[in-house]
Amino acid sequence: MSETAPPLTDRQRWTALVVLCVGMLMIILDSTVVNVALPSIQSDLDFTQSSLAWVVNAYLIAFGGLLLLAGRLGDLIGQKRIFLAGLTIFTVASLLCGFAQSQEVLIGARFVQGVGGALTSAVILGMIVRMFPEPGEQAKAIGVYSFVVSAGASIGLLLGGVLTQAISWHWIFFINVPIGIAAGVVALRLLRHEEGIGLKQGADLPGAVFIVSALMLGVYTIVEAAEVGWGATQTLLLGAVSLALLAAFVVRESRAKHPLMPLRIFSSRNVSVANGVQILMVAGLFGVFFLGALYLQQILGYDAVEVGLAFLPIALGIGVLSVGFSARLIMRNGARATLLPGLLLVALGLGWFSRAPIDGQYWVDLFPAMLAIGVGAGLAFPSLMTLAMSGATPEDSGLASGLVNTTQQVGGALGLAVLATLSTTHTDGLLADGVARAEALTDGYRLAFIIAAGIVGAALVAAAALLRPEPQLATAPGGGGARGRARVR
């Protein structure tokens, strides 16, 4: 039975939203600030190029592997408990990362950080949906969350560059500690605790083992494929085992009396398609953050701070669109109708990036692409999250939230591995043919951006063909504001 507690006031709900988004922002920032600081970490702790990748991979494996389980645990034992537990683990692990003086300590602490990040982020979207059940307010709240998730990546590039250059790489982790403590104290006092449906309703240990093993092994296979190759025996074998574990999980859940992940969550066509479209869109977008940053540094000679500033139009575009404007469009025209032009703009922006020359000029060759991607993502992310959460019941909101985060992580890891591999292979081939290094690198980046644009284009086609127009939300006669809205067909 759920605890009885007075409902939160409007001010308390919006303050709670800020607290949740601060927790999410801390996690999103951490994943990008580390990328900027990797050269300093490598030099300070004597990492080799291959071992340095584990500073990122250790986090990704734990984070991506536990998101779905963490979201379901929120449904079972209470989302506030999972959020606070994750925030505590993430904050302590950040402190350990900051003090790390050896490769082993840093990689181990990064894995623990991934565990905390998964627990924290998996339940946030579910908590938001439960706090804001009214469609108009929910659209606005999801818009704010979408801004944090999508713009946080570009903000992290700037913050990471500033901290690394002004102080040291240790502070990209130390800065999480006061933020995590403050967010935890406020969350403990403000967030409303609701009992979950109980472990008996989903304490499926074999199912948990299957899904965590499948996702962790799958993420590991993807990130290692960039090193060993997609056709390597290791990649094919581990990929097959990961798919077999995933199949075993689905079979188990279809037969379990109290499944960990009720398969009814996929009964909504829009929920399933929205998560699939998100995998494709994020796969394309992650290329622009990673390979775009390398292009700016290695070809145009930007330093870490200049790279962060160069990506600001994406953050600003997402912010302006996500916080308010996208919500109004979703209410007026529906999430599907808002999503499609957003995906088109992202694809066009990536396509513009693919013409980036060796002597590129920012305002001509980069800014139009950054702006198109920012505006497009500002329309697309809130729409996708609205669609992905549209079929979630209160009992399954944590699971749906974890699924959204899982598809983001899988899409990001898959896209980055594929694009980086193809870009590197193309560059190596050109270098072997005697092409100058700068030209070979640029051609490799161009190829990756073309493929990224194609992936987002495929997401656009899938969304247009498979998503069903949802009932439109319009202002009812005589109504005003959020509470005067009614569903019309």
UniProtKB/TrEMBL annotation:
Q: Which Gene3D superfamilies match?
A: MFS general substrate transporter like domains, Multidrug resistance protein D
Q: Where are the transmembrane segments?
A: 14-38, 50-70, 82-101, 107-129, 141-163, 169-191, 203-223, 229-251, 272-296, 308-330, 337-354, 366-387, 447-467
Membrane topology of the entry: Multi-pass membrane protein
Q: For this UniProt entry, what is the primary localization, expressed as one broad class?
A: membrane
- Ranges of residues in domain Major facilitator superfamily (MFS) profile: 16-471
User: Sorted alphabetically, which keywords does the UniProt record give?
Assistant: Cell membrane, Membrane, Transmembrane, Transmembrane helix, Transport
For whether the record's keyword set contains Transmembrane, the answer is yes
Highest taxon listed in the record's lineage: Bacteria
Q: Establish whether keyword Membrane is in the entry.
A: yes
Return the Pfam families for the record: MFS_1 (PF07690)
Compartments reported by the entry: Cell membrane
Q: PANTHER family, alphabetically?
A: BLR6921 PROTEIN, MAJOR FACILITATOR SUPERFAMILY MULTIDRUG TRANSPORTER MFSC
- NCBIfam families for this protein: efflux_EmrB
Q: What is this protein called?
A: DHA2 family efflux MFS transporter permease subunit
Q: Which organism is it from?
A: Svornostia abyssi
